[in-house]
Amino acid sequence: AEDLWKKEYDFAVAVARKAGAVIREAGEKEIKVCTKSSTVDLVTKTDERVEKIIIGSLKEEFGEGTHCFIGEESVAKGEPCILTDKPTWIIDPVDGTTNFVHGFPFVAVSIAFAVNKELEFGVVYSCLEDKMYKARRGKGAFCDDDRITVSDVEEIKKSIIISEHGTDRSPEKVKKIFSTMQKILCIPVHGLRGSGTAATNMCLVACGAVEAFFEIGIHCWDIAAGAVIVKEAGGILLDVDGGPFDLMSRRMVSANNKKIADRIIKEIEIFPAERDDAP
Ligand code: IPD
C-alpha cells in the first residue's frame, strides 16, 4: 500500500528543524516583545516570522488550494480557526513564547497534520534542547531516532504531574487553577512541574518523564502535535470532565494511562474557556 502522508511528514520534520534554527538564532539577538490578549500573553517578531516561514514553505510544497492552515499568529490576525475534513496543518511556530523572551530553556515548534478531522502526524521540535519528537498515526512515537513510550506507573502517589498557569490572570480562574494544583499535590504526588510549553509538556508525558499533563485554556496549535505523540507512545487523551478529547475545546488531560488520568480528573476544578472554533 502507498505510504500515505509520508511526504508531508518528512517535510514537516525538515521545516520544524529549519524553524527551530531561526528561533535559536533570534534568541541570541534582541527580542522585540508585543502583547496579544493581555499583558502576559506575549508575541514576538520571531513568532510571526517563523510562522510565515513554515506556512510559506508548506504552501510552496503542497499547494495553497488543497491544504488548509491553522496557525497561532494567523488566527491572532483574524484568520479562521475551523477544522474541516480537508488536509489541515495546525501550527504553533513558537510554543513557549514567554520562555523564549526570558531565555528559559524550553521552546518548541509544533506542527500537526489532520485529514477528515483526524490527526495523522505530529512533530514537536524542542529547539533549544535540539530534540525532535515525532509520531505518525499507527506508527509509534520517537524522540530523534529512539522509540519512546509512556511511564508504566499506575499509582498516583508515585507520579509527577504537569500543569500550567496559562495566560489568563482573572482571579476566579487563577483560584481554581491553584486549588486544583493544591489538591493534586496533596494526594500526595511525587511532584508538580511545568516546562512553560504545552507541546513540550506532552512530549514529557510521551517519553515517561512525567505521568500526566492537563490544562484548560490551551489552544489547538499548542497540543495537536503533542496529542499524536502521546497517543503513539501508548498514552491517552481525555477531556477534563473525563469525556472524549476534543482538539478545539481548549481543555485536555494527557496521561500515561486511564487510571492516572481518572484520578487527576477527580480533582480538576473546571472553568469556562471559549472554544477555538467558536463563531
Ligand atoms: C502557551 C504555552 C503554555 C501554556 C499556554 C499556551 P504560546 O503557548 O503552551 O505552556 O500554558 O496556555 O498559550 O503562547 O507560548 O504559544
TrEMBL record:
Biological process terms in GO annotation: inositol biosynthetic process; phosphatidylinositol phosphate biosynthetic process; signal transduction
Sorted UniProt keywords: Cytoplasm, Hydrolase, Lithium, Magnesium, Metal-binding
Pfam family, one: Inositol_P
Cofactors required: Mg(2+)
Annotated binding of Mg(2+) 1, by residue: E72, D95, D222
Residue stretches spanning the membrane: none
Species of provenance: Sparus aurata (Gilthead sea bream)
Subcellular location: Cytoplasm
Pathway: Polyol metabolism; myo-inositol biosynthesis; myo-inositol from D-glucose 6-phosphate: step 2/2
The UniProt record lists the keyword Repeat: no
Top-level taxonomic group: Eukaryota
Enzyme Commission code: 3.1.3.25
Residues at which Mg(2+) 2 binds: D92
Assigned protein family: Belongs to the inositol monophosphatase superfamily.
One annotated GO molecular function: metal ion binding
Record bears the keyword Hydrolase: yes
Protein name (database record): Inositol-1-monophosphatase
